[in-house]
């Protein structure tokens, strides 16, 4: 199995901005959870539903903060072990969706990875200062990619967490999460990836992934 390690790679982009790439054809194939040790769990134990309050509320985000468990710096965050475990347990779903072609024993996708990594690579655009380490395995025509941002500066977002977390009956543990396994098209390339789902809207009409939510809090001005 060929293995390529691209370390301390500075991507040299042309001065012209890259052409816009459209992500389309997103489809949810299945889900899985992770436990407090970030281990793979073939169930929906961490699935959560978002219930929008009837009126404006003012939470004290400092309550329960001491018990909060954050991701921290851990290479397992970028590992593909959970993705590969799901693929092993749900081979029949991959065949049914046309993702796995058993006649030639290969995947009908170009890249397998995590949504966060694919997003960061696409958002990098013409930024020449980002230093990324990628671990890439090419197996039967499919690239399996994991990566780590080596420099401290990461891509900014329009909304950032304010550093506090709500008080809940169970302390917030970012290791115990819920993920959807999805396929999508990026230009002419087909992707298979895991995507964290922090909550879902309680909507019997809107199907996954359109009811998936990422919760963000911002400090008051």
Folded structure, characterized:
By secondary structure, the chain is mainly beta. It is 11% helix and 32% strand. The protein has three helices and 13 strands. The protein has helices spanning 81-89, 91-96, 115-124, and strands at residues 3-10, 23-34, 40-41, 49-50, 100-101, 106-107, 111-114, 131-139, 142-149, 178-186, 189-196, 199-201, 212-213. The strands form three sheets. The protein has an eight-stranded mixed β-sheet with strand order 1-8-9-7-11-10-2-3. A three-stranded mixed β-sheet has the order 4-12-13, with no helix packed on it. Strand 8 (131-139) and strand 9 form a beta hairpin.
Number of domains: 1
Q: Report, as a whole number of angstroms, the end-to-end distance.
A: 53 Å
H/E element sequence: EEEEHHEEEHEEEEEE
What does the largest sheet look like? 8 strands, mixed
Roughly what percent helix? 10-25%
Number of helices: 3
What's the mean pLDDT score?
A: 75
């Amino acid at each position: 199995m060929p293995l390529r390690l691209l370390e301390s790679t500075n991507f040299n982009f042309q001065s012209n901005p890259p052409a816009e790439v459209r992500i389309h054809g997103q489809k949810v194939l299945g889900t899985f959870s992770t436990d407090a040790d970030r281990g793979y769990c073939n169930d929906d134990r961490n699935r959560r539903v978002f219930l929008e309050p009837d009126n404006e509320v003012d939470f004290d985000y400092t309550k329960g903060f001491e018990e909060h468990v954050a991701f921290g710096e851990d290479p397992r965050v970028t590992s593909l072990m959970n993705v590969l475990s799901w693929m092993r347990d749900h081979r029949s779903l991959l065949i049914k969706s046309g993702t796995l072609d058993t006649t030639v024993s290969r995947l009908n996708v170009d890249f397998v990875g995590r949504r966060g990594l694919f997003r960061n690579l696409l958002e990098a655009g013409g930024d020449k200062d980002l230093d990324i380490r990628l671990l890439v395995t090419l197996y039967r025509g499919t690239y399996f990619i994991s990566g780590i941002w080596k420099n401290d500066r990461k891509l900014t977002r329009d909304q950032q967490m304010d550093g506090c977390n709500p008080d809940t009956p169970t302390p917030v543990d970012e290791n115990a999460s819920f993920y959807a396994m999805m396929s999508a098209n990026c230009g002419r390339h087909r992707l298979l990836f895991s995507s964290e789902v922090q909550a879902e809207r309680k909507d019997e009409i809107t199907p996954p992934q359109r009811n998936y939510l990422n919760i963000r809090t911002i400090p008051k001005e």
